[in-house]
Amino acid sequence: MSVKRIFISLAAAFLGFSLAAENLPDGYGNIHLGMSLDETKQQLIKNSDFGYTGDRDVSLLPGDARILIETNASGGRGSPFLTQCWFQFYNEQLYIITININTQKTDYYSMFTTLCKKYGEPDTLDPQKAVWQDKEVTMMLEKPLSVKYIDNETFDMLKNASTIEKSFEEKNQQAFLDEF
Fold first, then answer.
1. What does the alpha-carbon distance between residue 132 and residue 38 come to, in Å, rounded to a whole number?
2. 95/13 Cα distance (integer angstroms)
3. Torsion angle, alpha carbons of 160, 128, 67, 46, to 10
4. Beta-carbon count within 10 A of 21 CB
């Protein structure tokens, strides 16, 4: 085989692979990061896969403006492929979706290979999780078997705010201790 043919074959394989990789999703089952609390509830009602049973699935989390919807699809209430799912909100905007998958219906390796085919190799990989990331979204496949979608901007803002609060608390604690 000539060098030119090898080059063309490699280029075609590379282009075919790069064209096959899709943008990272920002959610699952018509529920997407950034949706309002009310929009998310409406979509959960429309999509019985999650096993959403209404407002009794909604909880306030410690901290300002944080809400959690926890659904349970097991026991015949939703999709046989899902178990519990969590939808976390900050200021009534969805910023983390966690989809727990029934390990009796599918396995980590099947999910991993499917996600790699769709989105390419993960950005980071360790024995507990695979992580795909772009500017807006982080998608994680975690063991034993869950997929998590994270709004990077909101998550980073909350993480930085908690670091600042902690530093302020640490300074206050040190000032208190210095008084003795």
1. 28
2. 36
3. 130
4. 14
